């Protein structure tokens, strides 16, 4: 397999890193809520509260996990398209990754 040296790849990677960095703060809302509920489950005084808080923590973790997996899949597609010289498809896949990162908020 021939690796194509393309400025688009470097620029796209830098763009995605900056978007990811910005979106880490956005994902904190799900992360913070998951942590809050996990802590509440750990300090709850009754089994019903433990179950309720643990279930709620899982909901937020699953949202983040699903969108991160989809984002990784889109980034893999972007890399594959870029290595084949398909800039438009690589860009679209990168945009899809950004969309999934934003959805993880």
What do the pLDDT scores average to?
Answer: 83
Number of helical stretches of at least 4 residues: 3
Sheet with the most strands? Answer: none
Name the shape in a single word. Answer: rod-shaped
CATH architecture grouping? Up-down Bundle
**CATH fold name, please?**
Four Helix Bundle (Hemerythrin (Met), subunit A)
- For the record, the CATH class is Mainly Alpha
H and E order? HHH
Count of discrete domains: 1
Q: What ranges have pLDDT less than 50 throughout 5 or more consecutive residues? A: 14-27
Structural class comes to mainly alpha
The N- and C-terminal alpha carbons lie at a distance of 37 Å
Strand-residue fraction?
under 5%
Task: Give an account of the 3D structure.
By secondary structure, this protein is mainly α. Helices cover 87% and strands 0% of the residues. It has 3 helices and no strands. Mean pLDDT is 83; it is low at 14-27.
In short:
The protein is mostly helical and 105 residues long. It has helices spanning 7-43, 47-83, 87-103.
Could you name the key traits of this structure?
3 helices; mainly alpha; 105 residues; Four Helix Bundle (Hemerythrin (Met), subunit A)
What secondary-structure arrangement, pairings included, does this model have?
Layout (H helix, E strand, L loop, with lengths): L6 H37 L3 H37 L3 H17 L2
Helix pairs in contact: 1-2, 1-3, 2-3
């Amino acid at each position: 397999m021939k690796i194509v040296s393309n400025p688009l790849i470097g620029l796209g990677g830098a763009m995605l890193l900056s978007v990811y960095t910005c979106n880490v703060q956005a994902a904190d809302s799900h992360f913070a809520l998951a942590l809050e509920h996990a802590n509440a489950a750990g300090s709850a005084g009754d089994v019903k509260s433990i179950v309720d808080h643990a279930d709620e923590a899982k909901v937020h973790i699953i949202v983040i996990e699903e969108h991160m997996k989809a984002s990784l899949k889109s980034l893999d597609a972007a890399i594959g398209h870029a290595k084949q010289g398909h800039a438009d498809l690589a860009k679209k896949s990168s945009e899809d990754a950004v969309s999934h990162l934003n959805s993880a908020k």
